[in-house]
Design goal:
single chain, about 290 residues, 9-stranded mixed β-sheet, Immunoglobulin-like, 4-stranded antiparallel β-sheet, elongated, mainly beta
Length: about 290
């Protein structure tokens, strides 16, 4: 009972200081979605493209996609489709349209359901192939691009304990963080060292970019100790390909205090999937 009351009080203090919007509660189910971030799949239908399809020349089709958001924040971006064939044969040179998704539904920290939307390519008419002399294998590429903002929160206790892994509040995202802390006496203050490790989820279909979507693995990183303690470390645009560990430090008073701690990450994300199919030769369609 006492432990539960302490957790509730800590959550209330964090909300007042830094606006924490989620906190693990005593007895909460702690349910998580089976997926994270954004995901998409093909919608099945008589006139819709299906992976592994064998298309007749002149056969018309649309690409129907279901897009789902498992994050606590809304998402908007651009969806594009294209194939690997010369445009002289018809098909898809490149077709893009914007999308918007509401935040997924959570009950405190427990996942309830994702939000979803459907996209249909092309927005007007249908695709088809023509005048292909021999049967061919082909590919359709589907890519979603969006901007990701992650707010990661925790509490740095100093000077005790002298070493710990800080418990963080963060939702599922392409990049997550872990933080290790050590504290050592330095004259009439304590030097607090933070080792922030950034980790990208293992997904071969996902890549991270700068916010303008031009530079791969360039992400915007910032961190601070509240209410107004300066952390000495690299901040701003970092090369995520070469920088996975960021070391920060600051001097704190001798008094035992729990300092609210935040990390902000901003970057672009692309999710790409490839679907294989085949096109019959012209004479086979007669």
């Amino acid at each position: 009972m006492k432990k539960g009351l302490i957790v509730v009080l800590i959550c209330a203090m964090l909300f007042l200081v830094i606006g924490v919007d989620s906190c693990p509660m005593p007895g909460a189910g702690g349910g998580n979605p089976s997926k994270s971030g954004l995901d998409f799949s093909l919608i099945q239908g008589v006139s819709f493209f299906a992976s592994g399809a064998q298309l007749e020349q002149g056969e018309t089709f649309k690409i129907a996609l279901k897009l789902e958001n498992f994050d606590k924040t809304e998402k908007q971006g651009t969806a594009c489709v294209k194939d690997d064939k010369e445009y002289v044969y018809g098909g898809i040179s490149e077709d893009c349209m914007p999308f918007y998704l509401k935040a997924a539904e959570y009950n405190q920290n427990t996942f309830v359901k994702s939000s979803s939307t459907e996209l249909y390519f092309p927005s007007d008419g249908e695709y088809s192939y023509h005048d292909i002399p021999i049967a061919q294998s082909a590919k359709i590429f589907v890519t979603f691009s969006y901007l990701q903002h992650s707010l990661i929160q925790g509490t740095v206790n100093a000077p005790v304990p002298a070493a710990e892994t800080i418990k963080l509040i963060q939702t599922s995202a392409p990049i997550s963080a872990s933080v290790d802390k050590t504290v050592s006496k330095q004259e009439d203050q304590y030097k607090t060292n933070l080792g922030i490790t950034l980790t990208q989820i293992s997904d071969p279909n996902l890549k991270v970019y700068s916010e303008d979507m031009k530079s791969e693995n360039k992400i915007k990183f910032s961190t601070k100790l509240l209410p107004s303690y300066n952390l000495d470390c690299q901040q701003g645009i970092i090369d995520f390909a070469s920088t996975k560990l960021i070391k920060c430090s600051t001097l704190l008073s001798l008094e035992q205090v729990g300092y609210p701690f935040v990390i902000n990450l901003d970057y672009g994300v692309t999710i790409s999937k490839t679907f294989d199919f085949s096109i019959k030769a012209k004479e086979e369609t007669k």
